Amino acid sequence: MVSFVQKEEVRLLVPKLLITAFEPFGGEEINPSLEAVRQIEKDRISNVSVLTAELPVDRYRAVDAALELLNVNRPDIVIMLGEAGGRYKINPESVAINVDDFRIPDNVGNQPKDEPIIEGGPAAYFSTLPIRAIAERINKANIPAAISNTAGAYLCNRLFYSVMHAIKVNELDARAGFIHLPYLHDQTVSKYWDFPSMSKETIVEAVRLAIEVSVTR
């Protein structure tokens, strides 16, 4: 189910930001991306009009919902968030590749193997967010962050690629990219003792900083 929230009225010269998150998947009860976006909904962010969306972990419906929001609302900036269990840093992704190769089924049972996202589409799209500045700003706040050169081949990569493709072929004036987030502490209680995680407060702050950099650069 997709949710849509507009935090403040769009005003002249105020950029419009679309930020997306995923519902829980893979047996998890929470998703750090969704928890971060829910908090962003509650907080006031100055100098930007914020639109948010909760996307289903469904190979088809997630992309359809995101592209509808993109086409209807024409945001200036799109930040897509997702969970990357096992990572210990905030990871702005540099590139999305044109392949679906799901390691586990999505929430409705889809598990494609070695299939193109867009038949005949480019091999890859690069993020157009200021990802190096984002990583540097988050690190400056003493939160671990680094650019990642692989968004995987699961639904996060599919969404990233599909949004970048839509922006390209429809000649939309929007910058976009994907950021992977580590597990929340609550998710690692039943996992290995050294499984990496971050607090909700830390993840939310990292996302806020990413928004700040994306809006001002």
Describe this protein's structure:
- The protein is of the alpha/beta class.
- The chain has a single domain (4-216), classed as Peptidase C15, pyroglutamyl peptidase I-like (Aminopeptidase).
- The protein is 30% helix and 18% strand.
- It has 5 helices and 8 strands; from the N terminus they run ββαβαββββααβα.
- It has helices at 32-42, 61-73, 131-140, 155-169, 200-216, and strands spanning 4-6, 16-22, 49-55, 77-83, 91-92, 95-97, 124-126, 175-181.
- β2 (16-22), α1 and β3 (49-55) form a beta-alpha-beta unit.
- The longest helix is centred in the C-terminal third of the chain and has 17 residues, at 200-216.
- It is globular, with a radius of gyration of 16 Å.
Widest sheet: strand ordering: 1-3-2-4-8-5
Give the count of helical stretches.
Answer: 5
Biggest pleated sheet? 6 strands, mixed
CATH superfamily: Peptidase C15, pyroglutamyl peptidase I-like
- Rounded to an integer in angstroms, the radius of gyration calculated over CA atoms is 16 Å
Q: At CATH's second level, what is the architecture?
A: 3-Layer(aba) Sandwich
What's the total count of β strands? 8
Q: Which structural class best describes the helix and strand composition?
A: alpha/beta
Number of domains: 1
State which percent range the strand residues make up. Answer: 15-25%
Q: Give the uncertain stretches in residue-range form.
A: 1-11
Mean pLDDT: 93
The CATH topology, please? Answer: Aminopeptidase
What is the global morphology? globular
Q: Helix fraction?
A: 25-40%
Distance between the termini: 32 Å
Q: Please give the CATH class.
A: Alpha Beta
Return the string of H and E elements.
Answer: EEHEHEEEEHHEH
